[in-house]
Amino acid sequence: MPLSKADAVLQPPLTPSEEPLPAHRFTSSGPLTGRLRVPGDKSISHRAIMFGALAVGETRVTGLLEGEDVMATAAAMRAMGAQILRRAPDERGIAEWSVHGVGVGGLLQPAQALDMGNSGTSTRLLMGILASHGVTASFTGDASLSGRPMRRVIEPLSKMGASFEASLGGTLPLMMRGALPAVPIEYRLPVASAQVKSAVLLAGLNTPGITTVIEPVPTRDHTERMLRGFGAELEVEEIDGERVIRIHGEADLKPQQVEVPGDPSSAAFFIVAALITEGSDLVIENVGLNPTRAGVIEVLRQMGGSIEELDRREVGGEPVADLRVKHSALKGIEVDPAIAPSMIDEFPVLFVAAAMAEGTTSTSGLDELRVKESDRLSAMAEALTSIGVRVVEHDDGLDIIGSGGAPLRGSANEPVTTHLDHRIAMSMAVAGLASKDGVEVDDTAPIQTSFPNFTDLLEEAGSAR
Ligand SMILES: O=C(O)C1=C[C@@H](OP(=O)(O)O)[C@@H](O)[C@H](O)C1
Ligand SMILES: C=C(OP(=O)(O)O)C(=O)O
Q1: Which GO terms describe its biological process (predicted)?
Q2: What's the DSSP call for residue 394?
């Protein structure tokens, strides 16, 4: 379908700005109350655009996260032939995205390097998709992404026949050539990573035969759920405590209507903000509660947090509920490392909850946090220490000695450093709510990657100035 002029002007610019925003001071101002909705799930939004671009026909998506990471995925899929546009919001204010796909195997060679901005998910999943397309593509990214490990996908995708030229150390910028036909493999994940799992499964989509991924530790399963929803033949079996996932290649994907639930990783900032701010009683609507993502709720409850699930239902094939969160006296616990994969992005804000708890919270088994947008263990240890929290950093975790509910000191003079990491910026903003002097965050621009209206929502909920 050709784009009408009206539709065309609704295509937002998809290239992220790398301009830092001025430092912002987050301070306490009162309880968080009322009701709010966080934006759509980032993992599901990336996949909705990617799978829509690989289906034949029009996929429509509501609730899409319009953050820079997802826009980087959309720009890349456009550059390889998919038509992607945003329709004007309806009377309820809901904007719908339309993706006209090219079919599995139908992506075109991009004319320019694919700029992945800050997004690991875009990079690794697209490398998987292109591994079984006969195209050459280059990937670039910002300073944070250019430091993140890509060998974890290069290794299995090379076994499938793709070839790569990466920077020394296996990082971006890199150039790859997909294999046509690629060869199916059976791959046991050496690291608990949904991105690596997804890269191999997506390469399997256009590969003759059956590609198998064995997952010793379960990670988020949106790829499996959504690929099935788009009509791929995919089986999941549990054998000797491991998940064995098989995808049948040369698949035909059928376009879908996707409704993206609210992102539990974004909701976590507001859950912790309400738990640590006296007098808070906040409802966060429409939060995705896929069991492979909901670990943070369980851990915060173990710490004594009052988090109630209202109106449990299904949205877009995912369990969802409204969460009612009340201020609670938290206590420190030892966090079971086995729960880490189901809350891997929530540790920075969990450390803030721990800083306000009574006693010590110990965490371990978190080596993966060192290879996210920043080294999140050292970034959070440095940031929390600088606002007066007692933190002990270990190789694979942090121990945090909580204040027992007493306000944190805050950053009177020096802003905290966010290292181009949205989750460090938002976690330290939440810490600001519980501080005497407020917390100054050096650069809030990275927040645009996953939660563009974070500061506005925090203000609306009553606690930011
Ligand atoms: O598959 C995904 O959508 C994601 C997987 C996780 O990364 P890893 O697979 O590197 O753990 C997570 O940290 C990231 O935010 C999103
Ligand atoms: C790790 C994250 O994302 P990505 O790997 O896609 O950059 C995140 O959002 O916390």
Answers
A1: amino acid biosynthetic process; aromatic amino acid family biosynthetic process; chorismate biosynthetic process
A2: E
Give the range of the structural domain holding residue 234, as residue numbers without chain letter.
Answer: 42-258
Best probe residue, ligand 2, of 42, 49, 65, 68 (max atoms within 8 Å of C-beta)? 42
Which of 41, 69, 142, 345 is the catalytic position?
345
Query: 252 and 288, same structural domain?
Result: no
pLDDT tens for 212-271 read: 999 999 999 999 999 999 999 999 999 999 999 999 999 999 999 999 999 999 999 999
- Is 412 found in the same domain as 388? yes
Number of structural domains in the chain = 2
Tokens 């937002």 -> residue: 12
Among the listed residues 92, 84, 103, 1, the one whose alpha carbon sits nearest the alpha carbon of residue 46: 84
Q: What is the DSSP letter of 452?
A: T
Structural domain includes residue 5: no
Question: What angle is formed at CA 325 by the lines to CA 385 and CA 439, rounded to 5 degrees?
Answer: 25
256: annotated binding-site residue?
A: no
Q: What is the pLDDT of residues 103-151, one digit of tens each?
A: 999 999 999 999 999 999 999 999 999 999 999 999 999 999 999 999 9
Same domain for 247 and 271, yes or no, is: no
Which of 258, 290, 305 is the C-terminal boundary of a domain? 258
